[in-house]
Specification:
This protein is an alpha/beta fold. The protein contains 9 helices and 8 strands. The two termini are 31 Å apart.
């Protein structure tokens, strides 16, 4: 058995699900189209240039929906999937995952987007193991806007993968091949730990690194 790890946004999907969820909230008049969009765009720019403070972003991005009851939250997830995510799932992304599954590889999606947004997306890809940003819940089960444990972001992706494997009685060194697919230089720590790093739909910065180091470059989307 080999290990296949997949980033989500701009890797398996041709969009950023976190940012798109903010736009979705605006379209459904749950968030202000001026101030909320400005902050959402600013956070996304910080992510792209490597300056994002994740705790601040999680407090912001959960601020609208965490005030809703569980039924309304579930309906929001379902509508977001139907309107935004399912039309954006390309056959070639599904085929990539299924090729690794057919080879008997252990699969996981490893993403810096929170679990509320990404759990339904992982389910749509039929990937059970999702390493996303976990959210603290209070005694009543409501999301507080804080991060639970180590976030799956930058170096934290290595920690979360190691924790996940440890729960299965495994280590990264147990696998002959560790593939990691990502588009972003934020994922360089985990890409450098993989012995099969794949720059997938890479940003210009990651493509430069990949070419310098002789990594595979994969373009799933035109």
């Amino acid at each position: 058995m080999n290990l296949a790890l997949f980033d989500l946004d701009h890797t398996l999907l041709p969009l950023d699900s976190d940012h798109e969820f903010g736009e979705f909230l605006i379209r459904h008049e749950l968030a202000d189209g001026v101030t909320y969009r400005a902050r959402n765009n600013a956070f996304y720019e910080q992510y792209c240039n490597g300056t994002l403070v994740l705790d601040e972003y999680i407090a912001f991005t959960t601020s609208i929906w965490r005030e809703l009851d569980a039924e309304a939250q579930s309906a929001l997830q379902q509508t977001f999937m139907e309107e935004v995510i399912l039309p954006a799932i390309h056959p070639q992304a599904v085929e990539l995952i299924e090729r690794h599954r057919a080879q008997g590889d252990l699969l996981a999606i490893v993403t810096a987007t929170n679990e509320f947004v990404t759990r339904p997306i992982a389910d749509a890809f039929n990937v059970d193991d999702l390493l996303a940003v976990r959210l603290v819940r209070d005694v009543g089960g409501r999301v507080t806007g804080q991060i639970d444990g180590v976030p799956s972001f930058r170096e934290g992706k290595i920690t979360r993968v190691e924790q996940w494997l440890s729960e299965k009685g495994r280590r990264l060194s147990d696998f002959e091949r560790v593939s990691f697919y990502s588009d972003s230089p934020n994922d360089l720590p985990l890409l450098e730990r993989a012995n099969d790093p794949v720059a997938t739909n890479p940003s210009p910065a990651l493509e430069t690194v990949a070419r310098e180091r002789g990594w595979r470059i994969l373009r799933l989307f035109a």
